[in-house]
Amino acid sequence: MPLSLRRVVIGAPIATERMAHERLPILLALPIFASDALSSTAYASEEIMAALLQAGTSLFNITPMLALAIIVLLSIVVVSYRQIVMAYPSGGGSYVVAGDNLGPLPAQIAGASLLVDYILTVAVSSSAGIAAIVSLVKGLNPSSNIAQYTVHMCLAAVLFITLINLRGAKESGLAFALPAYSFLVLMYGMIGYGVYQYFSGHLTPVHSAVDLQNARYLNENTGRIAFENFGELSRFAGLFLILHAFASGCTALTGVESIATGTQAFKEPASKNAAKTMGILAVLLGTIFFGLSFLAVHSHALPPNATLMSPAAIEAAHAAGREVTLGETVVSQIGRAVFGTSLLYIGMQIVTCIILILAANTAFAGFPRLCALQAGDGFLPRQLANIGDRLVYNNGIFILAFFSALAIIIFKGDVHHLIPLYAIGVFLCFTISQGGMVRRWLRLREKGWQLKAAVNGFGCFCTFVVMIIFAIVKFRDGAWIIVIVIPALVFLFLKIKAHYRSVAKQLSLEGYRPAQGAQQHVCVLVPDIHRGVIPAMQLARSISSDARALHVSINPERESRVRARWTLYSRGLPLTILESPFRSLTIPVVEYVERLQKLDPGCTVMMIIPEFEPRGWFAKLLHGHAAFALAVRLHFMQGVVVVNVPYHIEAFVPVSEEEKARERELARH
Amino acid sequence: MPLSLRRVVIGAPIATERMAHERLPILLALPIFASDALSSTAYASEEIMAALLQAGTSLFNITPMLALAIIVLLSIVVVSYRQIVMAYPSGGGSYVVAGDNLGPLPAQIAGASLLVDYILTVAVSSSAGIAAIVSLVKGLNPSSNIAQYTVHMCLAAVLFITLINLRGAKESGLAFALPAYSFLVLMYGMIGYGVYQYFSGHLTPVHSAVDLQNARYLNENTGRIAFENFGELSRFAGLFLILHAFASGCTALTGVESIATGTQAFKEPASKNAAKTMGILAVLLGTIFFGLSFLAVHSHALPPNATLMSPAAIEAAHAAGREVTLGETVVSQIGRAVFGTSLLYIGMQIVTCIILILAANTAFAGFPRLCALQAGDGFLPRQLANIGDRLVYNNGIFILAFFSALAIIIFKGDVHHLIPLYAIGVFLCFTISQGGMVRRWLRLREKGWQLKAAVNGFGCFCTFVVMIIFAIVKFRDGAWIIVIVIPALVFLFLKIKAHYRSVAKQLSLEGYRPAQGAQQHVCVLVPDIHRGVIPAMQLARSISSDARALHVSINPERESRVRARWTLYSRGLPLTILESPFRSLTIPVVEYVERLQKLDPGCTVMMIIPEFEPRGWFAKLLHGHAAFALAVRLHFMQGVVVVNVPYHIEAFVPVSEEEKARERELARH
């Protein structure tokens, strides 16, 4: 984009020396780094219920228990991760930990998983944020058809976060604090008031007991209602179902990793502040998650993929293009149950949307940093290591925006369809980094290493088990994509590293002896005799007393003009005419250079190409680009140096009538 | 396209020396140059009737009379044009004649008109050719819906001719002779047999007398039937109608110009051969045109835009998406009347299609030649004057193909809609060139100049009157587009000329004194110290003992590496470190150059930029292009010469385990 527009949208450049100062205190870091994990409460309970619904609503009662199990897992991971943050104050999370303790291959596996999960964080969070708005509109006006614009709204959200992030980190921190803290206040308010209503017997369910009985799970693949009574399920199928629900709820854990990766963005002492933030985060996340799961059950909320229609009604609705599922989030239903359709409910939905969309920002902070780390190690293109002029990694931001938008388009902005891809990578990272820590304690054997190794080892074991469960129960729903993508990425990273290694080897000065006394041939191309050519001829003469001029014979008229004026303007350069039977400029010159190189192996050929450069696009269109094409062709030849001598001219200058008359006179003869 | 594919489709290159031999004898030139004019008989009679139909079919009887009037006009033009061909053996037609006798502005007006008409020739001829095929299919199977593919078929035809023409002129001549002569044989056969049937009373009309009575003109703009009995028209409206029909028929004259433009493609004596060809053409064209007009009336043919439906039936058909007009060409109807749906009828339609599509080839011969002439004079971009490697003007061919395809798409491949744009430019050219000839005879006053001037003057007058008629009666139907486009093109041509004049003035060596003794500063960019940089440093040293090295400080690590190794590798070059607070490579270098130029006005700065160039797209993606961006930026600065020193490296080379281990060791410290 033009520089001026760029400045308005993205802001003025920031000098490198300001870099160290762009670090955040806990109060500003919490909203940025914790919003991912916190906002996952907006869909975690819902995902548990969506999975349980396959066996009807009778199992909904175990939702809070599953939430508790997940909170226990969260505590284990957070305790384990605090040890990582303390050990790695400069940040990097599982990528750095794996690289440091397990070697490059595990590090690249962790890197690939993290990159994929950052992309999915953006896709899931913006989809869930837009789902909150869609639910709000539907909650207020059930006949609204806003759902059809879901994808457009999601993409607009991604664009918005992208622009915010191109402006840089500190400004983001300020912009994100207000909605994050509003979210906390409203959530705790809703949970507190809802629990009070429940125990005082005033909580009004959003669905009647009959509706709850009739609610069905709609199989998206077959379009049919799946209905199996839990009592009728085999013991294996029952276990599978509960594990499925548990795995779905584990999405609540995503986001812990990003604090460890971004430790360096915290104010000093960075480690301590990051660990403290992680602890606060765990408490907030656990209480909200449990509270919502509890209220979801008691307000008779249904997951958005539930349907209340009979199979016949569904078929009719499909034919008419109407929606068949409820499409309202569980949090929105809880809000309506607790607050009614009051201003508090509206405010909560809006703040939920904002916090979710801003949660995607976590990924925008972490993804480019990780890319830069990997690029610095040579496993990603070096361009990703470049800091933009506002101290943010522009290229990484663009890549993240592109792929998350792609995921949104493919999965139509539906959280429930994105979830199976999510979390598997996160748990893979958890496992790798904690495994790396175990290796570290075994190696360093510093004071108290046994306890530390046990903590990390237990965390490693738990997350590994959950990852395996996730991969199995979600395989058919989409986890298989991740099982393909992560190894493919790792292969690519290793290939890139092999290339950079090759380059380094070839550029190394070790044992290098510069070629001495190699002949240098200086040639200047003379397409015609005019002012634009003289400086190039002068230059050739000044570089070498042995320089020669080349003219490619394409136009006989021009050739004779060059020959005729040669003695006058040659400055002693000998002229060689190259024949071009097929009217090409490039081929004869390339052949000439090849002949020179054959006669004098190891020589360098310097080709001086004069080019007159008119100003403006109109004038540029009116001139051939044969000289440019020749320069590009020569650039790819070994041992050839191309010298461009531009001669700048104006597109339009006044030409007197007298001059025109003389031109006509000349043309006549 | 890749070179090998290009060779298969277009053929091997042809050397310049073969150019003079690519000239055609009359028997081969006639099909190429006359096919345009001849093939216009396929729609000229039809266009007269389509215009007359506005007052019902009662006026159809005057069609042969109008044809006769047009043939008289044709004779006048051809006699007048033979004088042009004789006077200008090297070709060029009205463009050259106008430039030679009337000055540059009339020449450019003629050039603009001709270019537009070449484009329309391609559009009209291919549309009419496809109409012949559509008519054939409909004639054999009235319920066919082939008409909906009209535009696709037209575009395919244009693509086909484009490829034929990219192969070069002589091969075209051979390929076009057979269909052209088959067309003549079949046409004369049909006319002869039809006239015999008519006079022996055996000609079976294709439409009954009742159908003929009920046939109506469908106004394309309103979608309604226009029906006015001629007897009810005012005298003015009646005259307007007949002039309209006359103007429509004048499309038969298009194509005469192209022989004059392409005289140089004839075998020597070119003038005589071209004049002879023109005479033959006039006789062929006149007899076929009159014969078809005569048979059209007596076989009760109706123009394709006629409808036999009632207004109510039309509305119903529109709603159902069915066609309402007949959509069969007049020639196809004559063919069915004379031959029945026999093999002869089928053959005639196919040959008509081929000759029409090949007629477009006339334009493909003339358009690029005219472009090259105009480009040679400086009124079109010089690239259009370049002959491709098969001795044809590739760029002109591409432009013609593009714009004619555009016209086909805009006017949906409908001949009747394209005709109002056509012919106005042709008659403008006729007028200008004949006017130029009058001026020539007045100037030269050679033997018999009075008669010659009278012939050309009369031709000039007649075509001028027809042009004015055409512009008035067809203005609303589309002629207004041409009235806008031609002046716009002329303006563009003059602007281009002004630019080339400016360039010539600025490049002229008249009064030029080379700057003597101006300082030359040689700088070499050193982004790092490695093998890729050393050759550039060597070069700088060899060019000037006063050369200096520049390092832009973006990465502190690299800066310290450069400083540390400098003494070892500097070769005596002094090192200047340029600060870059915003991490840009370009800005500090540009600022440095500007400082140099300020301190030493008039100096030349030579900037040597080393660049390592890895092989393959994968490797190229993995390297930044900051050096390239810098080179481009410097290229646009006055007084700066950019020297690119590429260092070629392989994308992948084997790296031993030992080397990897050493690399890891180095990274650790």
Key words describing this protein structure:
homodimer; 669 residues; alpha/beta; five-stranded parallel β-sheet; three-stranded antiparallel β-sheet; 8 strands; 64% helix; elongated
What does this structure look like?
The structure is a homodimer of 669-residue chains. By secondary structure, chain A is an alpha/beta fold. Helix content of chain A is 64%, strand content 7%. Chain A is built from 26 helices and 8 strands. A 5-stranded parallel β-sheet of chain A has the order 6-5-4-7-8, with helices on both faces. Chain A has a 3-stranded antiparallel β-sheet with strand order 2-1-3, with no helix packed on it. Chains A and B meet through helix 20, helix 21, strand 7, helix 24 and strand 8 of A and helix 20, helix 21, strand 7, helix 24 and strand 8 of B. Strand 8 of chain A pairs antiparallel with strand 8 of chain B, so a sheet runs across the interface.
